[in-house]
Design brief:
The chain is of the alpha+beta class. The protein has helices spanning about 1-15, 20-35, 50-60, 100-115, 140-145, 185-190; strands spanning about 40, 45, 70-75, 80-85, 90-100, 120, 125-130, 135, 155-160, 175-185. The longest helix is centred in the N-terminal third of the chain and has 16 residues, at about 20-35.
Amino acid sequence: MAKLSSIVLYILLSICLPNHGAFADELGELMNRVASLAISRNGYTLGKTLTEKQMVIAQHNSVNHATPGTFKFKDKNLYVVLEKTTHRIIILYEQYENTTAQQVRDLVGSLYLDFGDPTLMAHDKIIYWAFGAKGKLSKKQYQHDKHVKKKLNVLATVKLNSDINVLGKREKTKVGDIYFIISSEPVLKLVQK
């Protein structure tokens, strides 16, 4: 009986959502391109499916949220957001409140080790690493393409935003909030459809 119900549901979905297969194929292909960039943090890679060990962590550490079609969990300080049906990673982020200048420096240093020199820095408080189909875009390449008005085709980004200056002069006694987010805008747009 359960098998028959599954077949009927599949047929109804096929009739009501004729483009569902095309959507799944498009999302899968895009996620594969993002995963090939190997943008990782603490063993989690943007665009990849969770491992069995990570699935256990996810099941025991879920976080309530209101975004339909996604599942969110926390592994230590890292939040991981999945596309619900495929369990592929669509967002990775960490956020900290009341951080000191030293904690900001440590986090920024960790991201530099993971991703190398950033593509773009702004206002001493924002750092971007941008990735195209062939890998991370250098600052020089990004500026050149922007200057000649060439379409950038950014596939994924790592963005760090801090209340405290990341570069330049830091006030040792000042505290503030900081976060970074790893995501793919093209994937997020497709998932939101």
